[in-house]
Amino acid sequence: MERNHDIDVPGPVASGPAPLQDEMPFAVVEGEPLTELPRDLYIPPQALEVFLEAFEGPLDLLLYLIRRQNLDVLDIPIAEITRQYMQYILLMNELNLELAGEYLLMAAMLAEIKSRMLLPRPQSDEGEEEDPRAELVRRLQEYERYKRAAEDVDGLARLERDVFQVSAEVVERKVATILPEVPLQEMLLAFRDVVQRAAMFAHHHVQREALSVRQRMSEVLSALETGGLVDFISLFSPEEGRMGATVTFVSLLELMREGLIEVVQAEAYAPLHVRLSPRPANDPISAEESTDTVS
Amino acid sequence: MESTHLKNVIEAALLAAGRPLDVEQLRELFEDYERPPASEVRVALATLAGEYEGRGMQLVEVASGWRIQVRADYSVPVSRLWQERPTRYSRALLETLALIAYRQPVTRAEIEDVRGVAVNPNIVRTMSERGWIRVVGHREVPGRPELLGTTREFLDYFGLKSLDQLPTLAELKDMDNIGVQLEFGETAEVSAVAATAVAEAESVEPAGTETPRLPEAANDPDVSPA
Amino acid sequence: MESTHLKNVIEAALLAAGRPLDVEQLRELFEDYERPPASEVRVALATLAGEYEGRGMQLVEVASGWRIQVRADYSVPVSRLWQERPTRYSRALLETLALIAYRQPVTRAEIEDVRGVAVNPNIVRTMSERGWIRVVGHREVPGRPELLGTTREFLDYFGLKSLDQLPTLAELKDMDNIGVQLEFGETAEVSAVAATAVAEAESVEPAGTETPRLPEAANDPDVSPA
């Protein structure tokens, strides 16, 4: 805020005792500010190019001119600033530097403001005078705040310059895979579709009643997989009640019907035992193995 | 040099480097005037190694210097950082699984009869590895083909208490959209507060949240075969 | 879960990842049955951050989660590990970036209006490639110009948790009121020290109404869906 009104203090960049609205010297030779390019002096165009590239556009250049002289952005001496600005433009022209169109646009805008400053100001609806510089001032301020925001962003502690992300080696990296999820619904749809395709609707295997029996069939087969005799009674769980017993019984009947198991009894009234059906003798593999299991 | 400062610089550098650093490289982190002797660097390394005991990382010496690495105890959870996103199971797998569930115990040949194509051995292996199916026996016919059935894990995964809870084929046939039907079934039954409580208590199964509940009717043991 | 184990897994994972991890990602390192609640993970993170005090590294929260990084005190010696100087970004790039960050979503034309010069396409490309900015939509005017915004990576890179943490944008002064404001400002300055403190405390808002938050950037990892 202070820098906007204490205009008497020379700016930090200002070289020499340049009075307030003096034109901007582009060089100082033996204490004498040079405001015109000496005809006999060769300035390599690259040097000026570098100088101009330091500006991010006409607004930046204007701000530089204003700040350099500690002028208040809100009260720019428009005639003087325009004159200084034009000097830079002419200089650039003289050096045949390619000038961005934006610089010329700004020159035109400055000239227009300057001429309007000389004319009586039009009254707005509220009866207030409108300052012809208002729009320029707004743009300069708007640009300046983002120019400073850019400096602030650059000042943030950032990765690779101020902050270093750390890492540690994982010597034994194991690749773990997540198993896909299967919604039940998807499996049911798959079942419906496959059965529909196969036109197997009437088949007894897929009636509801079969399901608990089929599950029990798998369980009974598992219980018998050791190959030995299993107590018939042990296949029933009293805690399942009558329904459970019925399911087990039906599943045993179904397994017998399919020839998967057989029920054996040593003598009349002796306890019943269940075992897997002996393998057919004509099967070479099972014939080999059967010697191990049949005892 | 103050030993904490030295230790911290070494720690920071080893963590930032992403490669092992030897004692000489560590010494070069310091300006000439403050460069610690190699002996001090080694003491600092030993101190650091000790401080990492019981932590997530460890300091080890390898051929090209010292390295901070993840302690092997934690490589299993850490490896999950790079785990592959799951792919979806194929239609063929789902159909095979469904057929095993509904028609168990069942042989591959019987599945092939229904599906009309050979059973891909990878599919059977995938489902076995997942613990959803297993060989429950052999059909005593020439070749003794394996009989496949579903497991308790299968029921757990799908949030079923028993296979009875699966809809019958007749029910499936009537459903143009199973999802809608199943949801209807649920809302219809959630009349009682107790039912809700039970449903919530049961929803701890992994797939519970995504698995639509089945109509209560299928649960009723009284409807089961006589 | 045993708290040391949890803490060590988190430490190991953050070190191994080499990128920030959020609470949800940390929870996913554990199997379903042992997965700790988010609150426990946060406690472990706070404990870790405390344990790193006075060490070579620090645990910080940035936009996309928690990150272990070299403590700023040690960045000078650590930077000697690399020969190359860190990239310097041009003023043009930084100004364009600042405009996108503070005024997003913003079109190229709007950036040009403020800066008074055309937007250099290379600058936009560089920032996109770095993952700092992206097209967040189109303005529904003729030509449907792209609207640019910053990303989560931008925040991570600059060590910010959200756009709120950007440095305050300078105020605009009105030409007509400037005299009044100055007088008012000078007398008021003496009167209330507290007011200044409040103003400073409030100044974390970067640009007030002009800076719409990006939904992603403002997304608090703590409230992300479980």
Question: Helix and strand layout, with pairings?
Answer:
The complex is a heterotrimer, with one copy of chain A (295 residues) and two copies of chain B (226 residues).
Chain A lengths: L26 E3 L2 E3 L10 H9 L4 H11 L9 H17 L6 H18 L15 H22 L28 H15 L9 H16 L6 E2 L9 H17 L3 E5 L6 E5 L7 H10 L2
Helix pairs in contact in A: 2-5, 3-4, 7-8
Chain B lengths: L2 H15 L5 H5 L10 H14 L5 E6 L2 E6 L4 H5 L11 H13 L4 H8 L5 H9 L3 E6 L7 E5 L1 H6 L11 H6 L3 H12 L3 H10 L13 H4 L7
Antiparallel strand pairs in B: 1-2, 3-4
Helix pairs in contact in B: 1-3
Structure description:
- The complex is a heterotrimer, with 1 copy of chain A (295 residues) and 2 copies of chain B (226 residues).
- Chain A has helices at 45-53, 58-68, 78-94, 101-118, 134-155, 184-198, 208-223, 241-257, 284-293; strands at residues 27-29, 32-34, 230-231, 261-265, 272-276.
- Chain A is 46% helix and 6% strand.
- Chain A is rod-shaped, with a radius of gyration of 49 Å.
- In chain A, α2 crosses α5 (134-155) and α7 (208-223) packs across α8.
- The longest helix of chain A has 22 residues, at 134-155.
- By secondary structure, chain B is mainly alpha-helical.
- Chain B folds into 2 domains: 3-79, Winged helix-like DNA-binding domain superfamily/Winged helix DNA-binding domain (Arc Repressor Mutant, subunit A), CATH 1.10.10.10; 91-224, Arc Repressor Mutant, subunit A (Orthogonal Bundle), CATH 1.10.10.10.
- Chain B has helices spanning 3-17, 23-27, 38-51, 75-79, 91-103, 108-115, 121-129, 152-157, 169-174, 178-189, 193-202, 216-219, and strands at residues 57-62, 65-70, 133-138, 146-150.
- Chain B has a two-stranded antiparallel sheet with strand order 1-2.
- The termini of chain B are far apart.
- Mean pLDDT of chain B is 77; it is low at 178-226.
- At the A-B interface, α6, α7 and α8 of A face α1, β2, α4, α5 and α6 of B.
